[in-house]
Structure formats: C-alpha cells, structure tokens
Known about the structure:
Mean pLDDT of chain A: 91
Shape of chain A: elongated
Largest sheet of chain B: 2 strands, antiparallel
Largest interface: A-B, 25 and 20 residues
Number of helices of chain B: 6
Largest sheet of chain A: 6 strands, mixed
Helix content of chain A: 25-40%
Oligomer: heterodimer
Radius of gyration of chain B: 17 Å
Number of strands of chain B: 2
Amino acid sequence: MTDAIRLAGVGYRPGAGFAIDNLSLAVPEGAIYGFLGPNGSGKTTTIRLMLGLLRPATGQIAVLGESVPDRVAQALGRIGYVPERPHLYGFLTVAESLRFHAAFHPRWDQAWANQLLRGFGLALDRPLGRLSKGEMGKLLMLQALCQRPELLVLDEPTDGLDPVVRRELLSAVVDYVAEHRATVFISSHLVHELERLCDWVGVMDQGTLVTQLPMSQLKNGIKRLRMSGPVDRLDGAPFSVLSRDGRTPGSIWIVDRWDLGMAGWIADRGVRIDAIDDLDLEEGFVERLKARRAGRQ
Amino acid sequence: MTPKQPGLLLRWLEDVDARSPVPLYDQIASRLKAAVGGGVLADGDPLPSVRLLASELRINPATVVQAYRLLESDGFAEIRQGAGTFVRLPSSEQRQREREAQARRLMREALAEGARLGISAKEMRMAWDETIKERAR
C-alpha cells in the first residue's frame, strides 16, 4: 500500500520556544487519519508544511506522490483543504466565492454543490463577511468536497461549531469518502468525534509525534491493571508502564503495548490481577501525553 | 433503505458507542441481529447502503462493510455484489441462540462498566436480582 502523505525527519523552527523536530509520519492511501494533540502541539504547522505553505529546514515531504514543496503545485489541485481559519474574501457572495473556487478545479461537482447548498441552508446572495461561524465552516467544507479531491486535509474543521453543524459536516465528509475512496487527514482536539470515524491515529505533543497507530491497536494496546501482591517483582515487564499508582489497597497501573499473554507473565511472579480495564481513546490519549511529559517513555 | 421503517433503524443504530471496548462493527451487527430477531427487519429487506449508514452515523465506511460481512457470515444477511445487502431470516434455533448471545453481551457490558467504577461482580448480581424483583412487582 502506498502512502498519501509521508513525512521523514522533518524539522522546522519558526522561532525561539517552539520547533517541529525530526517528525516522521505516514498516512496510508484511503485512510481516515485522525491527527490529535493539544492546542499548540504543532498540528497546524505540520499541515502547513504538508501543503507547501511552509518550507522545512530538514527532511522530506511527499504528498500524493509529489515532493513538497518543490512540486506542490502538481499536488494541490488534488487536495481539498479546510484551513483552521477562513481564508476567503469577505466581500464576495456565496455564489461568487463558489464560482471563483470552481474555476480552479476542473473536476468541480456543481450538482453536488447545489445539493449541499440546500442541505446546509446556505444563501447564495449572502456576502461571506456576514456568514456565521457555522455557515463559514459549511461553505469551506462544501468547497473542499466539491472539487472532488483525492486527499482531504481538514484542520480543526468543527472547532467552535455547534453539535448540529459538526454532525452535518462530518456526515458530508463520510458521504464523500464512501463514494470516492479519498484519503482524509483530519486534525482535532475533539477526541470523541474522531474515535468513531478514524482508522488511523497520530498524536502530537510539543512538536513531535508521540504515537502513530491503527485505531484498533491504539485502543486495544492500552489497559488499566488493578493488581494486588508484590508488584515490585514486575521489573522488566514485556509491556510498557505509563503510570503506577499504589495508594489504594491494590496497585493501579496504566500499561501500553499490552496483549493477552502478558497476564500469565504477571501471575508467574506471584501478583494477582484483579481487573483489566479498557481505556477509551481520550483516556489513552491523556495517559500517553502525561507519561511522555513525565519522561517515562 | 428499509422500505417500512427507515428512521427507526437509524435511530436504533445512532447510539453506538465508540468508547465501548466492543468494536463498533460488532455493536452495529448485534443491533441489526436484534432488529431481525425482534421482527423490525423482515426476510429480504434491504439494509441501508454502506454510504448512507456510514454518513448518517459519521463512522468509517469500512466499519459498516465489516459489520455487514459479520452479519453475512453469521447467516443474518446476504451481500449481493452491486445490489446491496439484504436481510436473511435465520432459523428459529439460530435466532434463539442470537437472543441468548445478545443477553450475554449485555451482561458483559454491564459488568465491564461496573468494573470501571470498582463495583464487584457479586454486587452487580445482587443489584440485578433486586432489579428483577422490583420489576416483577
């Protein structure tokens, strides 16, 4: 399988205090890739590097098989991009903005645009400067989808929008993907929204990629263990320990890279496992970040 | 879409829970099996298209495909290439087995949820017995 997006050893330093450092990342073709991370972790900077809007100091970037930024022009026409902040001219009306956008995209799907305009309830004669935040979000998504891209890059597309609009936008994305088999790269800090949608997840923190895994592995690999007995005998465990809490009668550990056979390894050392709990994506995400910041990983 | 009760089926599926340890495709398949077992879906009824169900639920289309494959291998549906997926009514023994499996799944989910809150299986059983008694009154 080829990758729709590939970053290898990318470095970028916009100024003192923040840097993208040795960032490697791969988005398989056809994936819906969720790009998670707290605010300020470097998600938007990474996206701008991918789209050739910033030039990396080190490393290689390839998007849809084209080297970025050198050959980004060859790729951009095949990418639908919804930026974090609107970039459209406020004096254009919705109709004018659509005509303007469509002119750059030979595969523009006007029939679907009309359908989405009705579905989203967007008025054609309204100036963009007077659109609400939700309407602007819808227009940006409509434009990105109707150009029929091979790759959708969505930077916090639902941030600050109400739940009804968020649902409408995500439904439209899924509708498009189901029909056209596009790759989706979607950044968000709304973890629950991505949990049901994505099949790949990358987690950013402080300019580096903390983890990158298929969703099923990310969710199944991390567990909360409740144990009693001599837990100090568990040194050199085959799983990695994100945190340990021994205040309660038993010990509670959060572990990563867990698989079923490891319960036997623990039992062999005279420690009893009282429970193995699953963590949801958000809990797993928070635990991984905490562990990384504590320098345990 | 099912001809008779399109909205009902989607409402039934809307509350699938991505945070549950039970994979989404499994949750969708079990709900659809319950719909077949409970008579909401009849033999030969078309299931929603992958595109429609995925976009309505805002889930990965691959998840819907996985759910429909599971239904087919369990004898509850037939995937006809290019035409869609259709309900197949399983034998009454099979339906009974499915109801029992569904009951076990629900209990497992409740137990797991209890365990997250530190409630033991014994306490869960006591609560269960009491709840049944209350309902019988």
